[in-house]
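dumping this here before i forget
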Amino acid sequence: MTAGSSTQVDAPLDMKVDTGPGGADPVVAGELVTVVAKPTGSQLLAAFPPRRIEASWPATEETRSAVLARVLAAPFTLDNRLSQQTRRTGVLSVLSWLQTHPGESWQQRWQASGAENQSDWRTIVTVTAAGRSRSQVAVGRQLPHLSPGLLVLICADVIRPSLAWLLRFAPARRGLATEMARTRDRETFAALEQFCSQGRVGLQTGQQALTRVGVIMASKGGSVAAVRVGDCVELLQAAAELRATAGSEAHAHSPLFYQLLRRHGVLGQDAPAAIEMFSGRGQPTCEQLIDRYKITCRPVRDLLVDYLRERQPSVDFSSLQRFAYLLGKLFWADLEAHHPGIDSLQLPRDVATAWKQRVMTRTRTTTGSDGEPVTVTSARLDGRSVLSAVRAFYLDIAEWADDDPGRWGPWAVRCPVSASNVSHKKDRSQRKSRMDQRTRERLPVLPALLTWVQAERDRTADLLAAAEASAPGEVFTASGQTLRRTVMSTPTTGRVWVEPADGGGRRDLSFEEHRGFWTWATVEVLRHTGIRIEELTELSHHGLIQYRLPGTGELIPLLQIAPSKTLSRRSDQRPSRVHHPTPRATSRRGIPHPHRRGMGRVHRSLRTPQGLSR
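structure:
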């Protein structure tokens, strides 16, 4: 590319493109990366606080007659006469029971009753109504109309139970999302259900997400539009505390409800893209990095912290963390373990020699065939890197002592690691030999691997297509297999289940096709681009850009690799076949597959933008 030439760059819509002075070549934002500190979880929590719990509100201060007049009319009534009669009886029973407790509002009476402290509040009401002791009421024989009655009062905002109780007591959540949609916010719940349907989210998974929204509305009041980011975080924190409690909901930690609310725009434009960001503690400070290794000598500990601070502006966090590990653990913590009381960087010759011998080996304890622990010592592959880091540490201090003798001068001493100790020539030769040997061993089987992943992808796709074209209970044959589509008692969305025609275990063909595709896409991208694994996990459809030659107008596809080891992006020209798997990946559904956690890295290799349909 020459200066002053006319160029055209077809970049993704969300990529900022600036034009250079005088119409020069455009500069794509991102090639010069400015490191901006991301907010920590605590900072995000302060920026998005939950709504406070109100002590009283108009609906809970109404009289008994006003409450009955409201909850026994539309939209709280049901068309079915028997069901409506059950609800009416339940509302009357719950209100009569609450009136026996002190308080100026129904919420105060609910809290005074201690219902949330009981394993099942319905037992207390049943005992009171029957005039018998609690031991005389059999388990599961509580009055059947109590739960429907309480559900009506919750949806009518007469009572607001706590988040913890709603998550712990499963019967209180039964039908909650449906009733909240019917009585408070029908349109928004319909939109959230539509998002689940478009994303092919399973019926049970989607219902659980809508129930999470209903739980927040029941505890804090208001419609879906009143839900805040802090309310979602508060719910997940309460679920985390109750996850190990018997009877608590196992799936309450799923963030799908947050994704649905954010996509609908309820949470606002400033809402973080992922709720997991609130649990992030941010990057550790230099002091925290060094204090991991419990260094006894305080002056040396402070010196290591100051050294990391000096290096911090010029290195990324991974490198800084690596320096802390090499200098803090493998160097000084090892010296203190073998020479207690050491307090100077001026190491005696025998101490330095012994340390260099230890650092070149790695000792680990395993269990032998007889069950006894066995200590195994092997060569440390990166031993020279440890020596290089320590040598750089000593030489940097000596150089900085010339500019700031008061700060670094007392620590400028002879380096115990010579230049010959850090020569990597032999290590590089041995490493290249190992890499070449691995390549020689694996290259002959590469065609077999490619054939297998392609065949597996085609096989799973054919099976899924044949199953989707079959009716439940119908037998079909595809890819040499005779299967029967499973008849499900509850309809499922996004999953196609089959079972062998002659009997056997049930199989999820949706997941098999999902795994087959992403395995094929991972192998194809890796073999055509040669990128590293960490770069592959960051690859998305935004990395596909196009460059048009100014003279001929020819369109050249480019693959933009996100920063990995450096702070600058790179764009590599690749053959057109490189882009073959990536468009197929970006055309797949955006909301995660129900079995995403089972896929691990395979699913996350090529990130799919949300909102795309297959």
